[in-house]
Design goal:
- β1 and β2 form a beta hairpin.
- The strands form two sheets. Strands 2-1-10-5-6 form a five-stranded mixed beta sheet.
- The longest helix has 8 residues.
- The protein is globular.
- 32% of the residues are buried.
- Helix content is 14%, strand content 31%.
- With 183 residues, the chain is of the alpha+beta class.
């Protein structure tokens, strides 16, 4: 959990960013990592990290909150610090590529309305995201606070979905499937 009571400013240092994972922290060799984009696209493609990094990068400061933040304190408050009660929140500067750039690269077919994002962790975490949201402001992050994303934060590639719960920001991103329905 993030030690919020000891913070100075709004950016959470990468090493203090809260952690939540459902299948442990996966180890991925970035030189071998692939992102597959398929489904309702003109041409399904596999992107290496080198491919992704060739696109123009952008940075954005985003606040992330775990959907379980504060959950243990609802019935009876027991923890004594804001880190214990609400420490599943962090703010970082994320760097990467707009998701719309890669979706435009593969060409989204008419009628597509949803995107299934899948992580490469043991839990194979997946979330459905409205395509309109994906095209508007989602991005694929490979940097956090001026350094590579750390393994516990999804190295080498994490989906960032601004304004949505942290569990929508799929870590260790390996697959995006474009569809006409949510999964």
């Amino acid at each position: 959990m993030t030690p919020l009571e000891k913070s100075h400013g709004i950016i959470t240092p990468s090493g203090l960013h809260y952690e939540r994972h459902h299948g442990g922290i996966t180890t991925i060799d970035p030189a071998k990592h692939l992102l597959y984009i398929h489904g309702m696209v003109n041409q399904g493609k596999k992107f290496t990290m080198a491919d992704i990094r060739r696109f123009p990068m952008m940075s954005r400061i985003c606040f992330l909150e775990c959907s379980g933040n504060g959950l243990t304190e609802w019935v009876k408050p027991t923890l004594k610090t804001v880190q214990g009660t609400h420490g599943l929140t962090s703010t970082s500067e994320w760097t990467g590529v707009p998701l719309s750039t890669l979706l435009n690269e593969v060409g989204v077919k008419p009628g597509a309305k949803w995107l299934l994002a899948e992580g490469g962790d043991a839990a194979v975490m997946t979330r459905s995201i409205p395509l309109e949201k994906a095209m508007a402001d989602c991005f694929l992050a490979y940097g956090q606070n001026g350094e590579a994303i750390r393994p516990e934060q999804g190295y080498p590639l994490r989906l960032v979905v601004p304004g949505y719960e942290g569990n929508m920001c799929i870590k260790w991103l390996r697959r995006l499937e474009v569809s006409d329905t949510p999964s």
